[in-house]
């Protein structure tokens, strides 16, 4: 359970070291070549953010040309370097990657000579065939032929339900100066709640711990004792160095032979030691990377020392990689006419940040746009589908795409008042809270009431109370309308009507606005106690 999440600025400004030492043999001083120093550089949740730059501690960070410069600079310091990623390198990407089917992101990882990666939930966004094409290569009508990734993908708990076989290899072995290092991949079992059902045909995601331990057993049979897990599972490490979350479960329940776990999914800072395993996660979007340094005993083939540092990709003090920058600029030029088109204006920034009740200015804009587009009484939007904030001033096509990159079709259904109440109560789930953004209704929730009973009153914006037995028209994107993110009561919807994509609806709404867009918080969601 994610008990505590520290702010990004704090997470990235705090460089902490986590080390675990196994006492080297007494004769180590007489055997200077007995140990191999290996460096593993890891990213997670990159999401195709090739040209994304953010302010961290009032300093610019991010961008593929800067990430490349950092990785190559570190690689120069140790020839025994392995580069890894823990999933979600694509999906929910900005136009520079998404408009070309995320091929540019895979190409850049190829250029940087990544060694191994695993899948996250967003690798499923366009289905298994497209995932397979990005990994192994193939043809797409938009982009033509693509060669795929030049490094292996591993996933030990991703099965074909029909055949009972794994879609990808469960692990791979890399040799460093003749000593084998095993890399096992797993993806969160929450995938069915995070991906549209149509994209998961014949897919079964099994328990991560069981899958890891099964692969560890096989690796040990092959003589591999240095074992690393790439897990698309989340966690946090707070300012006191305490690590929490799903990664802790993996560390506690997996075989002792596992030495290091690279995490992902939660877009957070993790750097801690749990059950003698080093656990790391480097936030997201290439704003940071994990530098894990281990010492391997040539005789025992085991890792005897390990430490980690999470490094922010600040622009200050480093030159961007020239080749990567030049290639990046070519991609940007290719899409510039489209992404730079001005579609409207805003008087002030609109963002995803929710107030204490759960309302956000950008969420209000998006749901208002969807309700107007589909002429429904109510609109509901999952917060995970809002991927970026909106700056003041001119609003470009590219900015809107960055906010709604999935292109999910809007679906209008009829739901009973009881269904609507149930959906709102499903915002508070066992291990996570997902506050839906809303339009057309106002509701109150009580923080002191148990999950499933928190919503106390719901009214339409005209003041009319929502009646359990009455039917109302509700619009949502196709992911949410199919019961995604655990909002299972959406499956009760009837008389479905399809509309444009969420992205198209937002662009058209902004274009048709007679006045510049203003950020609005109007009390749609009220919290008591």
Notes on the structure:
By secondary structure, this protein is of the alpha/beta class. It has two domains: 8-22 and 32-121 and 151-331, Purple Acid Phosphatase, chain A, domain 2 (4-Layer Sandwich); 341-528, 5'-Nucleotidase, C-terminal domain (5'-nucleotidase,  domain 2, Alpha-Beta Complex). It is built from 14 helices and 30 strands. The strands form nine sheets. A six-stranded mixed β-sheet has the order 1-20-19-2-5-6, with helices on one face. The chain has a six-stranded mixed β-sheet with strand order 10-11-13-16-18-17. It has a five-stranded mixed β-sheet with strand order 25-22-28-24-29. A hairpin with a 2-residue loop joins β3 and β4 (59-61). α10 (361-374) packs across α14 (502-512). The longest helix is centred in the middle third of the chain and has 18 residues, at 322-339. The relative contact order is 0.13. Residues 1-29 have low confidence and may be disordered.
List keywords for this structure.
single chain; 529 residues; alpha/beta; Purple Acid Phosphatase, chain A, domain 2; 5'-nucleotidase,  domain 2; 2 domains; six-stranded mixed β-sheet; 14 helices; 30 strands; 29% strand; globular
């Amino acid at each position: 359970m994610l008990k505590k999440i520290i702010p990004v600025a704090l997470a990235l400004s705090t460089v902490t070291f986590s080390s675990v030492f196994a006492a080297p043999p007494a004769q180590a001083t007489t055997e200077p070549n007995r140990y191999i120093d290996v460096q593993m550089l890891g990213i997670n949740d990159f999401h195709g953010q090739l040209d994304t730059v953010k302010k961290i501690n009032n300093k610019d960070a991010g961008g593929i040309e800067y990430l490349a410069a950092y990785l190559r600079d570190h690689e120069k310091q140790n020839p025994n370097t392995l580069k890894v990623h823990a999933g979600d390198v694509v999906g929910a990407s900005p136009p520079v990657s998404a408009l070309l089917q995320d091929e540019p992101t895979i190409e850049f990882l190829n250029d940087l000579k990544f060694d191994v990666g695993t899948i996250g939930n967003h690798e499923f966004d366009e289905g298994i065939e497209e995932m397979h094409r990005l990994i192994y290569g193939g043809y797409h009508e938009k982009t033509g032929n693509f060669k795929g990734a030049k490094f292996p993908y591993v996933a030990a708990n991703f099965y074909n339900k029909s055949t009972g076989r794994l879609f990808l290899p469960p692990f791979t072995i890399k040799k460093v100066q003749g000593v084998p290092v095993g890399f096992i991949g797993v993806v969160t079992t929450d995938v069915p709640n995070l991906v549209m059902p149509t994209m998961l045909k014949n897919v079964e995601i099994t328990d991560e711990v069981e899958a890891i331990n099964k692969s560890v057993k096989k690796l040990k049979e092959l003589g591999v004792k240095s074992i690393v897990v790439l897990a698309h599972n989340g966690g946090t490490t707070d300012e006191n160095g305490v690590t929490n979350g799903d990664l802790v479960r993996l560390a506690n329940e997996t075989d002792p032979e596992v030495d290091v776990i690279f995490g992902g999914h939660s877009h957070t800072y993790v750097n801690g030691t749990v059950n003698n395993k080093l656990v790391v996660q480097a936030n997201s979007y290439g704003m940071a990377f994990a530098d894990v340094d281990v010492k391997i005993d040539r005789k025992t083939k085991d890792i005897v020392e390990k430490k980690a540092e999470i490094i922010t990709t600040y622009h200050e003090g480093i030159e961007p990689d020239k080749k990567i920058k030049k290639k990046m600029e070519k991609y940007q030029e290719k899409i510039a006419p489209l992404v730079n088109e001005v579609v409207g204006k805003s008087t002030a920034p609109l963002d995803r940040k929710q107030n204490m009740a759960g309302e956000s200015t950008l969420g209000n804009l998006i749901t208002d746009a969807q309700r107007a587009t589909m002429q429904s009484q109510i609109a509901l939007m999952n917060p995970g589908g809002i991927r970026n904030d909106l700056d003041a001033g001119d609003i470009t096509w590219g900015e809107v795409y960055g906010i709604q990159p999935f292109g999910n079709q809007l679906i209008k259904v009829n739901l009973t008042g009881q269904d609507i109440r149930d959906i709102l109560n499903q915002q508070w789930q066992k291990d996570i809270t997902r506050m839906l953004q809303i339009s057309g209704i106002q509701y109150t929730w009580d923080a002191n009431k148990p999950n499933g009973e928190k919503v106390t009153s719901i009214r339409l914006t005209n003041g009319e109370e929502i009646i359990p037995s009455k039917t109302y028209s509700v619009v949502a994107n196709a992911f949410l309308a199919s019961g995604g993110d655990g909002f299972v009561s959406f499956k009760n919807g009837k008389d479905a009507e399809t509309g444009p994509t969420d992205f198209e609806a937002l662009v058209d709404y902004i274009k048709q606005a007679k006045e510049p867009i203003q950020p609005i918080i109007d009390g749609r969601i009220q919290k008591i106690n």
